[in-house]
Amino acid sequence: MHDAAWVKLLRHIPVHEHSNLMLVTTTGTEIAIQALLRIDPECLALRGRLAGSTDAGRVFFVPYAHIDYFGFQQPLKETEFHELFGNLELLSAAESPTAPSVPSSVAPNSAEPAPTSASLPRSPAAIKSMVLEKFRARSASNSGTQTRPSPE
Question: What is the DSSP letter of 104?
Fold first, then answer.
């Protein structure tokens, strides 16, 4: 979700519901919210406690890019949900982010090389399998040249 959508959504929630919210970061840290202190364009300032702790009243500054999701700690009836969010529109057509358009008279920069598979980000699973392949290849090549003494 884009920062502007987070801002609009968080500002839409009434103050009396703030203490019923919990936030989970992209690293899996869960924060029980007591109050939303500031809803700025770049980050959210809140008072709360880490889930599973009793350290209430801590202040957190969380960039929107690090928010995985947030929700209600206590059950919310469907009618309450519709009362709170029934008229919410996160992004209107005018606010919707689009890719910048390049004028047709501007040619793409030919000095920039096309991305190669080596320059693209890899998933953790792909990196893990590459490391395992290298390890197995090294182990296989070393197994024929190294002999271990028998434990006697």
Answer: T
* CA–CA distance, 131 with 138 (Å, rounded to integer): 11
Q: What is the pLDDT of residues 98-115, one digit of tens each?
A: 444 444 444 444 444 444
Cα 4–chain centre separation: 15
Rounded to a whole number, what is the largest CA-CA distance in the chain?
80
Query: Could you tell me the pTM of the whole model?
Result: 0.57
| Cα–Cα dist 64/51, whole Å | 19
Q: Please report, as a single letter, which amino acid is at residue 15.
A: V
Where would I find the H helices in 13-118?
78-85
> Scanning the structure block, which residue is given the tokens 């991305």?
115
Structural domains present in the chain: 3-85 (2.30.30)
